[in-house]
Amino acid sequence: MKTDLLAPDFIERPYWWDLAPPPPAGSPQPLPDTADVVIIGGGIAGLSTAIELGRSGVKALVLDREAIGWGASSRNGGALSGAGSLGRARSDLHTLDARLLKEMVEEAEGSFDEFETFLQREGVQCFFRKTGRFVGAHAPKALDTLKRRAEMLNRTGRDTATILERARVQEEVATDLYHGGLLIERAGSLHPGLYVQGLAKAAAGLGAELRGGVSVTGLEKDGTRHRVRTSLGDVSAAQVMVATNGYTGEATPWHRRRLVPVASYMIATEPLGEERVRRLLPRLRVYGDTKKVLYYFRPSPDFTRILFGGRASFIDADATRAATRLHGFLTGLLPDLAGVRITHGWKGNVAFAFDYLPHVGQQDGVHYALGCNGSGVVTMTHLGRCAARQMLGASNRASAFSRMPFPTMPGYSGRPWFLPLVGASYQIRDRMDGWRSTPAKARQ
C-alpha cells in the first residue's frame, strides 16, 4: 500500500462527520412498554417516516443499533436526483408495464420537487444546491443507453435531459475518458451529515423518541399488535416499520432476503482551492458514469476539495486500503490530481434490490421502505413519507413503488457470497468496453 498517497492527518472517517458527527448512541435506559409505531432504522427513511407520522399526531419510537444517522445516511455522497437514477443499473426498464413505468418516473420526478419544499418546511440547513448532474458514457455504446434515459426523462415534461457529445465533455469534467454524456437538470447536492441531523431534530420536535444503541433481535405477532424484541426488552407496537436498508439484519429475515448489501467507498482530497476545483469540475455539479463498477464524485460544499467514490472492492476491505485504490481511479480520470493526497477515507453499505428498484409496502402487517440502490437521499425521504401515509390510511393512491413484487433469489439468505464473482464480471465487462481504469503505478 502506498502510504505517500495519504495525508499525515488521514483518518478513516466520513468527511461529513468533521462538521456533523453522529450523536452518542445514548445510555441504556429502559424502553417504553408500548408504542404507536416502532421504526427499525434511524436513517433517512426511518426519520422521514417519523416526521410524517408526527405531523399527524402519531409519535414514533425510532430504534437503531448504532447512533441515529450513523449508517449510509451520513456516509453517502450527498447527490440528489429524481428519476435520473431510476433503474440505472438495469437496461430493461422498457420491459416493465408501460403505465407503471410512467407512474414510477413521474413519482420519482415529483419527489425531487417535493424535496426542496420538505427542506424549507422542516427548516433543515444542509448546503442544498440545485446543481444538475452529469453522467459520463464510459464507452460509445453507453451513449446510446443514455439517449434512451434522456428520452424517458423528457417525456415527463418536468425534466430537461440533454445528451452531450464527446467534444463537449470538457465543459463538464476535465477528462478525455468519457465518450459523451447525459446532463440532467433536475439534480442537486447537500451535506448528508447535516441533512440527517436536521431530520432527527425535526422528528424529535414532532414527538418521536430516537434511541440509538438498541438492537432489534426479533419481531412477533401479538394478537392485533406486534412484539418488538430488543436488547433492552420488548415493546408492544400497534405498527412496525423496517427502514434498515444496507444494514438489514437477522431480525427481519423476509426483508433481508430481498436486499444485497454492497460496500461503497469514498475519499476526500486535501484542500485544493476553489479555483483548481473549478478547472476540473467547471459546473460544480454532481457526477457519475455508466460503468458497471461506477464512479461518483462532486466538489465539497465549500468547493475546495473533490469527494470521490466507487466500488473499490467487492469484499469487505478496510477504508485505508480502499482509499489508495480510489486514489488511482481518481487520478486515472483526472490526471491533474496525481500528486494530491487523501485526508479522509470511509465506507458504507448500499442496499440493492434484485430488480434495482426501490420498494415500499408491507408484508404480514410490517411496513417497509427499502432498496436505495445507490441513490437514496431523495428516494428514501419520499418513500418514508409514503410508508407513513400507508400507516395513517391517508394516502389517496398507493405509491407506484408499492405496486410490484419485491423479488429475491432462490436460496439467498442475505449474505451476498456471490459479490466477488459479480465484481469480477463487472470489471471484465468494463475492460471489454475499452475502459482505461487505473494507471499502472496505482496498481502497484
From TrEMBL:
FAD dependent oxidoreductase domain ranges (all copies): 36-389
InterPro entries per the UniProt record, alphabetical: FAD-dep_OxRdtase, FAD/NAD-bd_sf
SUPFAM superfamilies associated with the record: FAD/NAD(P)-binding domain
Keyword Oxidoreductase: yes
The keyword Repressor belongs to this UniProt entry's keyword annotation: no
Alphabetized UniProt keyword annotations: Oxidoreductase
Domain of life, per lineage: Bacteria
Protein known as: FAD-binding oxidoreductase
Source organism: Pseudoroseomonas ludipueritiae
